[in-house]
Amino acid sequence: MTDNYVQKKEKLSSIITQLCNEDIIVAFSGGVDSSLILKITCEKAKVTGQKVYAVTVHTKLHPIGDLEVAKTVAQETGAIHKVFEVDELQNAGILNNPVDRCYLCKKFIFTQLVELAKSLKINSVIEGTNADDLKVYRPGIKALKELKIKSPLSEAGFTKKDIRRLATEYNITVADRPSAPCLATRFPYNTSLSYEQMAQIEKGEEFIRSLGFYNVRIRIHNDIARIEVDHNDIIKLVDYKDQIIGMLKQLGFEYITIDLEGFRSGSMDYKLLESKK
Q1: Which of 32, 137, 164, 226 is most buried, taking the most CB atoms under 10 A from its CB?
Q2: If 0-12 CB within 10 Å is exposed, 13-18 middle and 19+ buried, where does residue 199 land?
Q3: How many CB atoms are located within 10 Å of the residue 244 CB?
Q4: Percent of the chain with pLDDT over 70
Q5: What is the pLDDT of residue 69?
Q6: Is residue 104 within 8 Å of residue 189, measured between CB atoms?
Q7: Segment 2-14, tens digit of pLDDT
Q8: What span, in angstroms and rounded, lies between the C-alpha atoms of 62 and 29?
Q9: What's the confidence (pLDDT) of residue 252?
Q10: Distance (Å, whole) CA 176 – CA 207
């Protein structure tokens, strides 16, 4: 019997091969999901002779380092890299962090990608949503469906584990890079978002990662900074408490706490999901 992972790889290859019969746009963040998609798409396009545009949306809702990573990976793949800036807080209706923030943001950004595709006479825009994303609160997926954006990884059944495995096989430089969701995920819903606080969070998380931590989130609750790291790193975090407290106080945080449940993606969605049960 064929291994399920092998079947997934074959399906992903088939999906992207068909899409590469014409020029294509890859929504490219520089993370492992979109990097894998871009790598495979560029390989297929070399055979078909079509152009691949890696389009990176530069936004203050993501750490500035993401753009530099995206530039490096795009250059490695040989894609035509385009970068354009957006201001979601002002233009996407998310200033007060509504519960459908992800939907509004995706709709705003991908509408612009669709317009770019039209100007280049391109029919397909693809992105890196994976099968795990379909199991959690991801309202942005609705926007992708409305705009007919294709998601080859989820269509092929690829989980995050599968993606990292295949990215390693392709020697993609960001294969082990931790996920970097938008900085708005650090705030409770229905609270005001500010670029100043996001910059503080970015600096704080960057500092903690520099101490040797992998997954790091600083969640904000008024004047409280709640730190999440992987569960087996919590004791290690305590060992660095003096440096971390000093840095976060310097950034303007009043109270510094450690979340004993450890890192978990989408922890700000807990109350929202409970209310839907």
Answers
A1: 32
A2: middle
A3: 22
A4: 97
A5: 86
A6: no
A7: 479 999 999 999 9
A8: 10
A9: 93
A10: 19
Please state, for a pLDDT cut of 90, what percent of the chain lies above it. Answer: 81
Task: Mention every residue, 6+ apart, whose C-beta is less than 8 A from residue 222.
Answer: none
What residue type is assigned to position 240 of the chain? Y
> Does position 102 have pLDDT exceeding 80, yes or no?
yes
CA-to-CA distance for 23 and 117, rounded, in angstroms? Answer: 10
Q: How far apart are CA 49 and CA 24, in angstroms?
A: 11
Kind and range of the H or E element at 242? helix 241-251
Question: Could you give the C-alpha distances from 219 to 64, 124, 153, 232, in angstroms and in order?
Answer: 19, 36, 29, 19
Q: Over 80: is that where the pLDDT of 211 sits?
A: yes
Closest CA to 36 of 147, 129, 117, 138: 129
Question: Strand pairing partners for 257?
Answer: 226
Q: What is the pLDDT of residue 68?
A: 85
Q: Are 31 and 179 in contact (CB under 8 A)?
A: yes
**Which strand ranges, in their side-by-side order, compose the sheet holding 80-85?**
80-85, 52-58, 24-27, 124-126
Among 206, 210, 144, which Cα is nearest to 180's?
A: 206
Check whether 1 has a pLDDT greater than 50: no
Residue 258, classed as helix, strand or coil, is strand
